[in-house]
Design brief:
Length: 423
Amino acid sequence: MNERYDVVVAGAGPAGAQCARDLAIRGYDVVVLETEAEDEFPRQSNKSTAGTFPSMMASFGIPDDVVMQYTDKVVLESPTEHYVQSQPGAVLEFADFKRFLVEDGREEGVEYRFDARATAPIVENGEPVGVTYNGDEEVYAEVVVDATGPAAPIAKKLGVSELERDNHAIGIEYELEGIEIDRPGFADLHDAMMLRLDHNLAPGGYSWIFHTGEDTAKVGICYIQNGSHSTYARDDFTVDDYLSHWLDTDPRFRNAERIEGKQHRGSAHIQPPGQMHTDRFLAIGDTVPSIDPLWGEGIHTCMQSGRMAAAATDSCLKHGNVEPTAENLEVYDSLWHKKVAPNVRKRQLMTRLLYLADNDRYDEFMADLERLDEETLARANNGSPLAIRKLLSANDIPMLARFARQQFGVDLPDLPLVDKLRQ
């Protein structure tokens, strides 16, 4: 095996594998270090709900044979109401998807080393020049990329990672069969991805049912361990307890059974990104983090972060006299904020406000969605203050007051939004 490459990537998830694919296509020598054994990959890291949209599939050349079910609508549920919007999507078999990225990357020339746990950067003259793995093995490169997710062993040692415990989200998912997909009194979930806002099931978060064909679906919950979770959570309930409670009380699951071997656990951080690079180093994917804060979609954003990191790396390495210094890699930050997560800070605030609302407000929210046109909803989803204001009313002032104190340390009358609401 070679010990010197153009780029070494730690982590073979969607972000790392895509970054490696793009760099290999450009002709660079790339090696990927992956903790798991190849014959089991990705048993330990098969953690994504894997709901995504056609834009991701087309942008990254993802084949149909890793898709469990194509969907044609998104459903939002509250405790007693629901809202349906037409929106094509796809639910992937995440393990097959990850294996495809590896094999396709290999065809382009990427070298993969499995059973290779990255542990630390190799630093010379204050700059990372490689990675140690499995304790004492070493590999050197012009650029180092950390795509290991929240563990972030390289980013943390370089002082780049800024993940905060208060923003840690945890989730659990089962794959079930025997579900009543079109239960009277609920939305028809055939060919649908459904997200439910209900603090009784996922305090400070959401739950989901993603149809995967016939009477099967991915079913799970996720919540952020922050103030909203503390407000609504039961002291004696774990994330497993909440999912069990949902399965026991929702009539759609009355005859459902878990599919053996199809349980997934995962975690991510829901927060704005901090520092993402330094000299000869880039952090991508959930190391940053890159997951969409509002609806939890992470595949597309992670793949995009890998692509933007590859573009930034190429901008340096294609010129023999341009060193991949922090200054020259700054383009990665610009591309990330433009292509990966536009308006990320506004969407983070929207997320915190959304999970602050109570269950009665979630029921009202479904009616709000019904009365607004799709263009306004799209603009609100992208963080437009004017569009968001159309989803609020004077009845929301108490909630906004709590939000203002928590997030900004100010009293509500100081916020222009309140004056507009009162008018």
